[in-house]
Amino acid sequence: MVEENKSSEKRFQILEKTMLGYYLPTNPFVISLIAIFAALTCVMTMTIEIPVPATGGYINIGDFIVMFTGLMFGPIIGGLAGGIGSCLADILLGWPLYALPTLIIKGLEGFVVGVIANPKKETIRINLRDVVAVIIGGLIMVSGYFIVEAFIMNYGVINASIEVPGNLFQFTFGAVASILLIIPIRRNVVRGEPQIFEKVYVIESIK
Questions:
Q1: Could you give the count of Cα atoms lying within 13 Å of 124 in the half-sphere of its Cβ?
Q2: How far apart are CA 158 and CA 78, in angstroms?
Q3: 52-79 pLDDT, tens digit each
Q4: How far apart are alpha carbons 106 and 110 in whole angstroms?
């Protein structure tokens, strides 16, 4: 009976530090992964910058890393790294007006990709959830910027529509590239260093 109580208490202590079974940034490993992938997202976003004069925004390929991070590590790391990294890129590239919307949109994109893909359920093989995840995540990005530009920044529907094809390119490139990369990376990392995921999400046996 004592052992059962200790086990239940331990389970509660672990689960209260998680969201959807993924650890919140309360341990150094998760914080480190967020920092690393935020930096990668920032660098990838800054690699290609195609300005869109009609909206004051720009086209980039940063969604590739946002989606990949969600597919690999789930919603917490995917959401925080995607939002923070993309936001920093806006600031560093001189687009501060977009920093806050980007933080929210890209953060939501990475979070939703991670929730739908749910890598703790299937960490090695590619599956339908992954494909659905990047499609919905990409649509969140495209529709998010359209709404912000058309109705919050007041550029109007016509001007906001001009950026949609470019954002669809970001979406398509990010979805295809992240899926192609996640296949070998998942297999190699999960098989080679499986212990790292014990610090990212709660293993099924203690749920």
A1: 7
A2: 32
A3: 999 989 999 999 999 999 999 999 999 9
A4: 6
